[in-house]
Design goal:
- Helices cover 26% and strands 25% of the residues.
- The longest helix has 29 residues.
- By secondary structure, the protein is of the alpha+beta class.
- The chain has two helices and seven strands, in the order ααβββββββ.
- It has a seven-stranded antiparallel sheet with strand order 1-2-7-3-4-5-6, with no helix packed on it.
Length: 142
């Protein structure tokens, strides 16, 4: 740490300003790429990390998933979704096992992790039996 501070102290003002400007450009470029991905994919979080082993062998802990969330695409049983349940901060990556759509167009989904013995109803909010469209962050692609 002292060596780093010594390097910074050894720079003249122009060099220090140039280093700060370069760092700012790297950070702003990363943010622009992230926001661009959000617009292109329609997802608030276009890339997520798998946090548990509930989807093994399809996905392992630490895998990166690329998500899309186009509202005009229909969802089918067998697709892998990322969704957030009320009362939980961490999104869940699981497969749709049942799909229901009523005449008004409301979509209700039942999900399950591939390596879990039962469906996800125990993970949903209290009294919730289905995942609705507004809880979906995206569907896994690729």
């Amino acid at each position: 740490m002292e060596a780093l501070l010594g390097d910074v102290k050894g720079m003249n003002k122009r060099q220090l300003f140039y280093q700060i400007l370069n760092f700012g450009m790297i950070v702003s470029s990363a943010l622009m790429i992230w926001k661009g991905l959000m617009v292109v994919t329609g997802s608030e979080s276009p890339i997520v990390v798998v946090l548990s082993g509930s989807m093994e062998p399809a996905f392992y802990r630490g895998d990166l998933l690329f998500l899309t969330n186009y509202q005009n695409e229909s969802i089918k049983a067998g697709e892998i979704l990322v969704f957030k349940v009320k009362g939980r901060d961490i999104p869940i990556v699981h497969r749709v096992i049942k799909f229901h759509q009523n005449p008004t167009g409301d979509v209700k989904l039942l999900t399950k992790g591939d390596s879990n013995p039962v469906d996800d109803r125990s993970l949903y909010a209290e009294g919730q039996l289905w995942v609705s469209r507004d809880e979906i962050s995206g569907r896994a692609r690729g």
